[in-house]
Amino acid sequence: MDKSKRLFLKSKRSFRRRLPPIQSGERIDYRNMSLISRFISEQGKILSRRVNRLTLKQQRLITIAIKQARILSSLPFLSNEKQFEKSELVVKMTGLRTRKK
């Protein structure tokens, strides 16, 4: 086979199609906490569409549901775990920097 024609041939790699993160029966709603919590990072941020592998419409609905849950106080705006860890680091760092006279 000619070298110039070989460049245009596609490789036949097999890949496993992943299951969609939201099944057809699941309803995207602010009350469905088990569904919503899958799309939030440990810090409490909404994960991007690329990470979630959602469609544009699903990402919009998830974002709205998360924001509604936050406003209704069923979901925190920030995760307390990260804030606690950060405050511990600050205390440790300031303790190391004390001057001796």
Detail the topology: elements first, then pairings.
Layout: H1 3-6, H2 33-36, H3 49-52, H4 56-71, H5 80-96
Q: Which residue ranges are poorly predicted, with pLDDT under 50 across at least 5 consecutive positions? A: none
Number of strands: 0
Mean pLDDT: 79
Q: Tell me the series of helices and strands, N- to C-terminal.
A: HHHHH
* Spatial gap, N to C terminus: 82 Å
Question: Could you characterize the architecture of this molecule?
Answer:
With 101 residues, this protein is mainly α. The protein contains 5 helices and no strands.
List keywords for this structure.
101 residues, mainly alpha, elongated
Summarize the structure.
This protein is mainly alpha-helical. 45% of the residues lie in helices and 0% in strands.
